[in-house]
C-alpha cells in the first residue's frame, strides 16, 4: 500500500554534510511512522532515526544523536535525513521504511541509497 523511494545519497568527505530523502506514495496515513535504517557491508541492519507523520515525534540512535536530524514534509509525502559531521563509519546503504504506530514490524521498504564518507 506504500511505496518508498530514497534519493540523495553520494560521496562526501568526513566532517561534511548530506541530506537523503524518502518519497512516499500510496497510502500514507497519519498513524504511520517513517524510519531510516542503514546497513554497512558485513554488518547488521541498524536503526538510525524515525519520525511520526502526525505529531513529528522523533527518535534517534545514540550513534547519530546530535549529528543527524530527521524531518518530514507532509504536503510532499517526503521524509528527510539531514546528516552533519559525517564520519567514515556512517558509510552504509540507507533505507527508508514505514510502519504503523502500534506495530514493531516494517512491511514497507525502499530500495536504499548509498552514502559513502571518505577519510
Summarize the structure.
The protein is mainly beta and 119 residues long. The chain contains no helices and eleven strands. Helix content is 0%, strand content 55%.
Figure out the total of helices: 0
Radius of gyration: 13 Å
End-to-end separation = 40 Å
H/E element string?
Answer: EEEEEEEEEEE
**Strand pairing plus helix content: what structural class?**
mainly beta
Helix content: under 10%
Tell me the overall shape: globular
Characterize the largest beta sheet: strand count, sense, and whether it forms a barrel: 7 strands, mixed
Strand content: over 45%
User: How many runs of DSSP E, i.e. beta strands?
Assistant: 11
Describe what you observe in this structure.
The protein is mostly beta strands. The chain is built from no helices and eleven strands. The strands form two sheets. Strands 2, 4, 5, 6, 9, 10 and 11 form a seven-stranded mixed beta sheet that branches. Strands 1-3-8-7 form a four-stranded antiparallel beta sheet, with no helix packed on it. A hairpin with a 4-residue loop joins β7 and β8. It is globular. It starts with a strand and ends with a strand. The relative contact order is 0.32.
Q: Keywords, please?
A:
single chain, 119 residues, mainly beta, 7-stranded mixed sheet, 4-stranded antiparallel sheet, 11 strands, 0% helix, 55% strand
Q: Which secondary structure elements does this structure contain, and how are they paired or packed?
A:
Layout: E1 2-7, E2 10-13, E3 18-26, E4 32-39, E5 46-52, E6 58-60, E7 68-73, E8 78-83, E9 92-100, E10 108-109, E11 113-118
Parallel strand pairs: 2-11
Antiparallel strand pairs: 1-3, 3-8, 4-5, 4-9, 5-6, 7-8, 9-10, 9-11
